[in-house]
């Protein structure tokens, strides 16, 4: 009986031990909460100070890349509860892509929210997200290869950035953007989406431009439905293959549409009565203008896709391929736009009726 009592202490002693353990756990939890609260408050106070110190460095780095930034403003800064990220609300700044000109800083960037989240504490890298982005280019700042003066409703996501080294992060972002908008591809996993206004003559269409990941590279594109809508407004008939190609070159869309319309109007002007001579003139002119603007390879890519449309006979298709090649050849030979109409009238190599296809040997037919 005595051994049994020794092995089973009285209930009140067990209760005291449990109470003591609960008290210690409560003190630990309270201590952690106090530590977290102090850390969060310290970060919340220190963060605006740190950002205000960083901004001049970011501006200096941007200026070294040819971009002048000024007038940084934001409504508020929040630190995430896990202390691994920040959120900046209603950020805006002015910028100038040509600081040496006499124009004022009229270009603007606004973002409803910019957030940065540290995902790898060992490499100090993480993800940058921007929502509600709007970029407005002043006329003097509009880059040569960008035919849109405004991006609205924009979103950006860049993973694996060096968040605690803002100079490195800014350099990575600027290099990625430059490649994306000049070469339509970048190795950086750069996710972007935004609305742009496509203007051709007096026709305006809002289109969604976004990036897609292709292997190890990101590239810009338009949605097919937007290209179809633009073509419909311009009363242009595009083959599905053409729509696919054009959607992959969003920065070229206004020029492609304009050239297509111009070729149609010129063929009507110079060959108003004969349908086949008009067709020949249009194809030569269209291919010529595309080659002058974008080079022979891209011109062939676009015009070949056009020949995939239903309804053409084999001879009509062979005629179109041949005349497209004539247009590329004339452009590569240095013929000017002023000379083109007359060259089309006198060039004996041009096929002006599908029946002529059978009079040419296979070696005489170009494609």
Task: List its traits.
single chain, 367 residues, 10 helices, 9-stranded antiparallel β-sheet
Query: Overall pLDDT, averaged?
Result: 83
Separation of termini? 108 Å
Q: Which structural category fits the helices and strands?
A: alpha+beta
Secondary-structure element order, as H and E? HHEEEEEEHEEEHHHHHHH
Number of strands: 9
Number of helices: 10
C-alpha Rg (nearest Å): 32 Å
What does the main sheet amount to?
Answer: 9 strands, antiparallel
What is the total domain count?
2
Q: Helix coverage percent of residues?
A: 40-55%
Which residue ranges are poorly predicted, with pLDDT under 50 across at least 5 consecutive positions?
Answer: none
Strand content: 15-25%
Shape: elongated
Report on this structure.
The chain is an alpha+beta fold and 367 residues long. It folds into two domains: 11-222, no CATH class; 229-364, no CATH class. The chain is built from ten helices and nine strands. Strands 1, 2, 3, 4, 5, 6, 7, 8 and 9 form a nine-stranded antiparallel sheet that branches. A hairpin with a 5-residue loop joins strand 2 and strand 3 (85-96). Helix 5 (240-247) runs antiparallel to helix 8, helix 6 (253-270) packs antiparallel against helix 7 (275-294) and helix 7 packs antiparallel against helix 8 (296-306). It is elongated. The protein starts with a helix and ends in a 21-residue tail after the last helix.
């Amino acid at each position: 009986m005595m051994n049994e009592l020794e092995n089973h202490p009285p209930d009140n002693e067990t209760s005291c031990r449990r109470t003591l353990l609960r008290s210690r756990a409560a003190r630990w939890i309270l201590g952690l909460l106090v530590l977290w609260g102090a850390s969060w408050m310290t970060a919340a106070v220190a963060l605006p100070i740190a950002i205000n110190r960083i901004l001049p460095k970011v501006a200096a780095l941007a200026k070294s890349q040819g971009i002048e930034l000024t007038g940084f403003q934001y409504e508020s800064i929040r630190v995430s509860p896990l202390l691994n990220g920040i959120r900046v609300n209603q950020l805006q700044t002015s910028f100038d892509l040509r600081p040496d000109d006499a124009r004022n800083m009229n270009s603007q960037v606004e973002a409803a929210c910019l957030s940065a989240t540290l995902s790898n504490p060992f490499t100090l890298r993480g993800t940058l997200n921007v929502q509600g982005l709007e970029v407005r280019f002043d006329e003097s700042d509009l880059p040569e290869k960008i035919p849109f003066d405004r991006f609205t409703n924009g979103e950006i996501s860049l993973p694996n950035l060096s968040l605690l080294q803002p100079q490195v992060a800014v350099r990575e972002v600027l290099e990625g953007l430059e490649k994306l908008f000049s070469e339509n591809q970048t190795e950086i996993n750069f996710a972007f989406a935004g609305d742009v206004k496509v203007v051709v003559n007096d026709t305006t269409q809002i289109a969604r431009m976004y990036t897609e990941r292709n292997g190890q590279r990101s590239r810009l594109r338009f949605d097919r439905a937007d290209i179809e809508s633009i073509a419909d407004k311009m009363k242009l008939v595009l083959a599905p293959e053409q729509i696919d190609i054009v959607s992959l070159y969003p920065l070229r869309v206004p020029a492609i549409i304009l050239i297509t319309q111009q070729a149609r109007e010129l063929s009507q002007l110079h060959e108003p009565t004969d349908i086949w001579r008009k067709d020949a003139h249009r194809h030569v002119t269209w291919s010529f203008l595309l080659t002058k603007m974008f080079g022979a390879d891209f011109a062939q890519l676009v015009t070949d896709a056009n020949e995939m449309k239903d309804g053409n006979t084999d001879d009509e298709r062979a005629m179109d391929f041949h005349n497209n090649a004539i247009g590329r050849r004339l452009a590569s030979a240095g013929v000017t736009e002023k000379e083109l109409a007359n060259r089309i009238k006198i060039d004996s190599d041009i096929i002006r009726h599908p029946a002529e296809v059978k009079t040419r040997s296979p070696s005489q037919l170009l494609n």
